[in-house]
Amino acid sequence: MSELRTEEYHLSMGPQHPSTHGVLRLILKLDGEVIKEAIPDMGYLHRGVEKMMENRVYIQIIPFVDRLDYLAAMNNNLAVVLPVEKLANITPPPRAEYIRVIMCELNRIASHLVWLGTFALDLGAVTPFLYCFREREPIMDLFEMAVGSRLTYNYIRYGGVASDISDEFIRDTKAFLSYFRPRIDEYEALLTENPIFLQRTKNVGIIEAKQAVAYGISGPMLRASGVRRDLRRALPYSVYDKFTFDIPTGTVGDCWDRYIVRIREMRESVKIVEQALAGLPAGGFKIKVPLNLKPLAGEAYVPTESPRGELGFYFVSHGTNKPYRMKCRAPSFCNMNILQEMLKGWKIADVVAVLGTVDVMLGEVDR
Amino acid sequence: MLLDLLIILIKSAVALAFISLTAMFLVWMERKVSAHFQMRYGPMRVGWHGSLQLGADALKLLMKEDIIPKLVDRWVFIAAPVVVFVAAFLAYLVIPFSPVLYVKDLNIGLLYVFGVSSLTALSIMMAGWSSNNKYALLGGFRSVAQIISYEIPILISVLPVIMLSGSFSLIGITEAQRAFPYILIQPVAFFIYLIAATAEVNRTPFDLPEAESELVAGYNVEYSGMKFVMFFFAEYVNMFTVCALATILFLGGWQGPILPPFVWFLIKTYVLLFVLMWWRWTFPRLRIDQMMSFCWKLLLPLALANLLVTGLVMVLIK
């Protein structure tokens, strides 16, 4: 009888797999259930968006970014509009800035809700997923009321926003916020202190603060590792310096910390929207900007805090009506690079937990 | 002799029909329960509140093309769903639904039930191994590890019941609970049994063998059409079995006031089934090593301690 032996094998997790959140492929080298090596393989969704944008006039660029991080299209709109405004010396009216903040924070809540739902689903809890989508629905309805579309908005424009918000929108948003607060407690009741949830997330996939900084991680992931850096506070853009809000941070940098940071961020976003609605100034919502915009020659980059981390678009303008070069700094692309190091030694079940808390958005990983 | 055989055959046919209907009803019930937990309606179109949905689904699955992938181990692949179904069905031969409604009263009924339900592990391993798919294989491994480990606390948790009733026969155990159900004096054993049974039938929080978000579908990933239905049915049949067994061992079986015995049996079993569904739609899933350590480091010592205490008390009372 031949001697029994064990061998390592490769498992191709994705590009079509229920919990890789899109078309990410992880090549796992496994010893039983233990991961020896994990190599993320991306590019399945590459569309050449950056190059396409370089061949469009400025006003045509905005709809493209809606389709990068499609769960936070408002934040993408803002991120792409800010550097162009900087180059072209456009100052939007204060009312527009407030509307932008309201929209971005609502979109942040919606994005975190999708994250929370899918994360719980990855861990095997199906019900929170539907609860999260129940609350996401009114946000989509609000956007529909203000913008006309529910997912890709093309709403934030150079010099302001596409249309003014109505009193009805303000009333409904306030109603939503008061409805939404207790709902967060409901999610927490289902997950936060659940022993099984704790077992699956506590001390799993730890990123130390130093490591996180070295890898260029940003957003909730960085804050979960205990680094108190939020671009809304560190390098305030738009009118974020006018609002008071906390920056939730974690201590250990494990999956649970990344979970709780995002939960608390939703509460902070509610606070910001409330303040913005209360202080909403009167006046115009957009200043006149030439349709065939020609910014001055130069370079501009404005880092913004998207739900996933530092999102910024780097523009090089030669003074023509098209950008000479455009580069997107996509947060989940940068955040994902740590997977290779994080996953080593964990089990297959942890892959989904870790991947879930990285919150990858393949639309912006492959541009 | 021949007549006896005929009677047993008829009884088996009735049992088969009963469990098929039960499985279909359970699938419908699970869909409805989960829907209402999640603020949905669930199936609503086919029949009253979707009650005929399962008929439509079964018909659809029957008409599906039966796909056998090229590189599978053909005969094992075909045999696995048959084994799982037979294993699930065999347990019903000894379950007493009422003082008269049972196929056969074995004097080792309880051992028999545990014996045949272990066959499930075999069939899942067969399915996982023969599918020639890494996800299926991982699901098979997990499942076997899980079922074998959890059988130990299950058996030890029911030993006090056997000690108290002095019988392995399911009817004997039921009748020994004439005065009071054993859950009153064996609550710990009951909970150990219920938790371990959840693991035994691969349901959340122990549904690792078919963890969709990790293994896509686990051991049955390559199965389609009627073969898939067999696995699917067996899962619900097994679920009914463990709940029926819990009813017999701890809740006094068919016994209860006013209502007929059969109704009492179903009420008790369905309450437990509802609890299992409730768990499934509330909890996240454990990881394989956590599940194993939970079994070996917590459930098993607890079950042993319970056994010891029961034995001591019995000796002292005597």
Outline the structure in words.
The complex is a heterodimer of chains A (367) and B (318). Chain A is an alpha+beta fold and 367 residues long. Chain A has one domain: Orthogonal Bundle (Cytochrome-c3 Hydrogenase, chain B). Chain A has 15 helices and nine strands. In chain A, a hairpin with a 2-residue loop joins strand 4 and strand 5. In chain A, helix 4 packs antiparallel against helix 14. Chain B is mostly helical. Chain B has one domain. Chain B is 69% helix and 0% strand. In chain B, helix 4 packs antiparallel against helix 5, helix 5 packs parallel to helix 11 and helix 7 runs antiparallel to helix 9. Chain B is globular and about 65 Å long. Chains A and B meet through helix 4, helix 5, helix 7 and helix 14 of A and helix 5, helix 8 and helix 11 of B.
Tags for this entry?
heterodimer; A: 367 residues; alpha+beta; Cytochrome-c3 Hydrogenase, chain B; 4-stranded antiparallel sheet; 3-stranded antiparallel sheet; 15 helices; 9 strands; 47% helix; B: 318 residues; mainly alpha; 11 helices
Which band does the percent of strand residues of chain B land in? under 5%
Kindly report the average pLDDT value of chain A: 86
* Approximate shape of chain A: globular
- Look at the structure and give the mean pLDDT of chain B: 83
CATH architecture heading of chain A: Orthogonal Bundle
What is the subunit arrangement here?
A: heterodimer
Radius of gyration of chain A: 21 Å
Low-confidence stretches of chain B: none
Question: Helix and strand succession of chain A?
Answer: EEEHHHHHEEHHHHHHEEEEHHHH
Catalytic activity (chain A): a quinone + NADH + 5 H(+)(in) = a quinol + NAD(+) + 4 H(+)(out)
Subcellular location (chain A): Cell membrane
Membrane topology (chain A): Peripheral membrane protein
Protein name (chain A): NADH-quinone oxidoreductase subunit D
